[in-house]
Specification:
12 helices, six-stranded mixed β-sheet, Rossmann fold, 17 strands, 450 residues, GMP Synthetase, Chain A, domain 3, elongated, alpha/beta, 3 domains
Length: 450
């Protein structure tokens, strides 16, 4: 237990579809949670730093209580007691437009037994005196604060109520990821074991996981320390083919997954070995290469493969034929459920990140270039030789190289691939999405007149 002086920790609790995630987005100042006019959109609890007037807050967004559905909802509801031990107070939110129902009454009775300060809030009160049509006093918290999370109404009164909450000793939750070395984005098709992998690494069930496909909807970021290195793990929704995505919630989930890719450094693409490599996996890999992120492929459920050597060779062959540079992507067999191979996977992830950030000296590169040119000279262009002169690395993250020389922009694609493959194999840049640019040197006598 510890006492925190700032910021105040607040959990937003209520039945489904009362506007909890909308209020979270309003307080954080950007869209961090998916919002849709249907029940059960939020599945995992999330914690974010937020501002309300002059208050610094740490807000915990929670799934709706009282939703009848699959068994995995019982898992997240079982986590609520721990959330209440880690906050200074609760925003109990109800719907001021439709009124309260039996689920609100059950939540109210449960909160009365917890002994925690509660701020009772009626959301969707855009119209004056609308909520007074319903007897909210039956819930036992008095008159609710009238707010509109969508339009930002009533937030001043809410801030005054939060100021009056006393700080109390509380447990700690895994908060927003700060001061991390890099972000690992876990991508893949639905139900390949992304959440199960993260839960194993954390050592407890932080994320919802189960045999049903499509459990994860929001992109959830959690901190992890592995072998002394601080990393942010980002769990994402499963990516299916666009033609198979019909529901708007799934479309927003896919957009959130791709948006997370923009802010990560290394990507772990998980593949279900019981299903094999599909075209959608190659499409995801192409997006990763376009963004220039480090990439490693985890072959999950490896213990269920009978011919492991043949399966491994087939995956390597499909990657080499299906995507440019696919033959250089590291493959790591593992079982996210039992933890077999997870330690080796992290060794590969750290190696890829270090190589992704590494800079090679110009002297080493030019010595390497001369060896490659002697081993395999470029083809002639209109009877004249193409003469690469020197090469240098202009940036890292991802490793980007520039080749200078006469007419190097006319080098054929197969020769560019020859040089790129040589860079990857000779400088150990597997899984780093390296890039090679060509720039022609200027002729100093081109503008002179005889």
């Amino acid at each position: 237990m510890e006492v925190l002086t700032s910021p105040k920790h607040i959990a937003i609790i209520g039945r489904p579809n009362v506007g909890k995630s909308t209020l979270l987005n309003r307080l954080v100042g950007r869209r961090v949670a998916i919002v849709q006019d249907q029940e059960g959109v939020t599945r995992d609890w999330q914690i974010y730093d937020a501002k309300l007037q002059d208050l610094s807050l740490r807000i915990v967004d929670t799934p709706g209580l009282g939703l009848e559905g699959p068994d995995f909802l019982e898992k997240v509801q079982a986590f609520f007691p721990r959330i209440l031990k880690a906050v200074d107070g609760v925003l109990f939110m109800t719907d001021g437009k439709s009124g309260w129902d039996d689920r609100d009454l059950k939540i109210a009775k449960w909160l009365h037994k917890q002994g925690i300060p509660v701020i009772f809030v009626a959301n969707k009160c855009e119209k004056e005196d609308l909520y007074r049509e319903y007897s909210f006093y039956n819930l036992g918290f008095g008159a609710p604060l009238e707010i509109s999370a969508l339009h930002g109404l009533g937030l001043y009164d809410l801030s005054q109520s939060i100021k009056q909450l006393p700080l109390r000793p509380k447990e700690t939750l895994t908060g927003p990821c700060q001061n991390v070395e890099f972000r690992l984005i876990v991508l893949g098709r639905p139900n390949v074991g992304k959440s199960t992998f993260i839960n194993f690494c954390l050592g407890y069930e932080r994320l919802l996981a189960g045999p049903e496909a499509g459990i994860t909807r929001d992109s959830v970021e959690v901190p992890l320390t592995w072998k002394g290195r601080k990393i942010a793990l980002v769990d994402t929704a499963g990516l299916r083919k666009k033609a198979r995505v019909y529901e708007s919630v799934e479309k927003m989930s896919c957009q959130a997954s791709l948006h997370s890719l923009m802010f990560g450094q290394v990507v772990l693409l998980l593949i279900d070995c019981t299903q094999g490599l599909e075209k959608q996996d190659l499409t995801i890999l192409e997006k990763v290469f376009q963004e220039g992120r480090g990439i490693v492929i985890g072959l999950n459920k490896w213990d269920q493969v009978e011919d492991q050597e043949g399966f491994y060779r087939s995956i390597k062959r499909c990657l080499a034929n299906g995507v440019k540079g696919g033959q250089h992507i590291p493959l790591v067999p593992l079982s996210a459920l039992t933890g077999r191979g997870v330690s080796g996977l992290w060794d590969a992830i750290f190696h890829i990140y270090d190589s992704w950030c590494y800079r090679i000296s110009t002297g080493r590169l030019n010595k390497w270039l001369q060896e490659k040119l002697q081993a395999h000279p470029p083809v002639l262009l209109r009877g004249r030789p193409i003469r690469p002169k020197y090469i240098s690395q202009i940036k890292a993250r991802p490793p980007t190289f520039t080749l200078f020389g006469n007419q190097v922009s006319d080098l054929p694609d197969h020769y560019i691939r020859y040089l790129l493959n040589g860079l990857v194999s000779d400088f150990n840049l597997q899984g780093t999405s390296p890039r090679l640019l060509c720039r022609e040197t200027k002729n100093p006598y081109h503008t002179k007149v005889n």
